[in-house]
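[Automated response] Your request has been received and processed.

Submitted sequence:
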Amino acid sequence: MTLKGKLAGFATAPGNPGYILLEVTDANGKSEVWAVQGNPLGALMEDGWSPKGPGPLGEELSIITFRLRTGAAATDALSTSTDEKTVATIKRAALLRGTEVTLANGAKKKFG
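Generated structure:
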C-alpha cells in the first residue's frame, strides 16, 4: 500500500527503528496521522538520510508500506525516549512498516 501525505514528524532513538509520522487526508477531507516504521537511524544515515528526517514538517511524501502488527505489541519495542505523539499514534494501531520514501522533489530513499 502506498501512503501519500504531509510529514507530521520524525522520531528516532539509538538502536531503535525510525518513525515517520505522516498526515494522510482521505477523499472526505478527514485527516489521520500514521506512524511508518523504518530502519534504525544508523542504517538510515548509511542510505543518505539526515538525522533530522526526510525534510521539513508539512512536506509532501509518498511511502510504500505494509501492515506490521497491532499497535499494542508495537509499543513494547519503543525506546522510553520516543515522543508522546509517536507513541499515541502507534497505540491506536495506525502503524505500518515503510520500505521506500519518495520526497517532494521526486527523489526516492530506502527506509526499511
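Summary generated for your ticket: The two ends are 14 Å apart (CA to CA). The mean pLDDT is 85.
If you did not submit this request, please reply to this message.
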